[in-house]
Amino acid sequence: LLIMPFTSMAQDIFSKYDGNPDVTYVSVKPKTFQILAKMDLSTDDPDAQEYLEMVKSITSLKTIITGEETISADITSWVTSKSRDLEELMEVKDDGSQVKFYVKEGKDSNHVKELLIYVNGIDKVMNEKVEINGKERKIETVVVSLTGDIDLNEISKLTDKMNIPGGSHLEKNK
User: Fold this and answer.
1) What is the pTM of this model?
2) Which of 71, 97, 109, 140 has the smallest number of Cβ neighbours within 10 A?
C-alpha cells in the first residue's frame, strides 16, 4: 500500500487518460514520423521545407486537453513531478493563464530530447467556443509532449504552427 501512490504518480498521464470522455487525446506514433522522413516532398517555400525538416526530427507527439477540474489538477500534479527531470525553459503568465515550457537537453546546447508544454487557465483568456469532434468543450488545461532531436532554435516556429499560447514569446528568448 505504501508504494501505490508512487506507482500512480509514475504512470504516464497520457496513458492514464487515453479513452477518457472528458479528455481530448492525441498521440502521433513514431511510425508517422518515419513515414514523413521518407517522403520526398519538393516545395519552393523555404518555410515549408524548414517545417518539414523539423517535423522529421520528432519521434513522438502526445497531447491531452481537458476542462474537467479534477483531471486538470491531476495533470498539474503530474507536470510538477515530471518537471523535476526537466529544465524550465520559460514561463508566461497572462490574465490568469499560465504557459510553461520544459526541455530535456539533447546532443548539444541547441537541441533537446524532449519538449513539454503545459498550459493552464486557458479558459480564462479564451472568448470563443471550442468544438472538438462536434462536441463543444471547455478547455482549462493542455499538455503537449514532443520527443526526438528537436532544434531549440526551431521551437518557436513549431509552437507557432501548433498555435500554442505563449509560443510567440519563445522567439524573443533565442
Assistant:
1) 0.75
2) 109
User: Which pairing describes strands 87-94 and 23-28: parallel, antiparallel, or unpaired?
Assistant: unpaired
Q: Are 144 and 99 in contact (CB under 8 A)?
A: no
Instruction: Give CA 31 to chain center in angstroms.
Output: 19
Burial state string for 83-94 with b = 16 or more CB within 10 A and e = fewer than 16: eeebeebeebee
- Give the pLDDT confidence of 68-122 residue by residue, as tens digits: 889 999 999 999 999 999 999 889 888 888 889 999 988 888 888 998 999 988 7
Q: Which three cell numbers stand for residue 1?
A: 500500500
Grid cell for residue 171 = 522567439
Which residues have a Cβ under 8 Å from the Cβ of 12 and sit 6 or more positions away? none
How many CB atoms within 10 Å of residue 44?
A: 6
143: pLDDT strictly greater than 90: yes
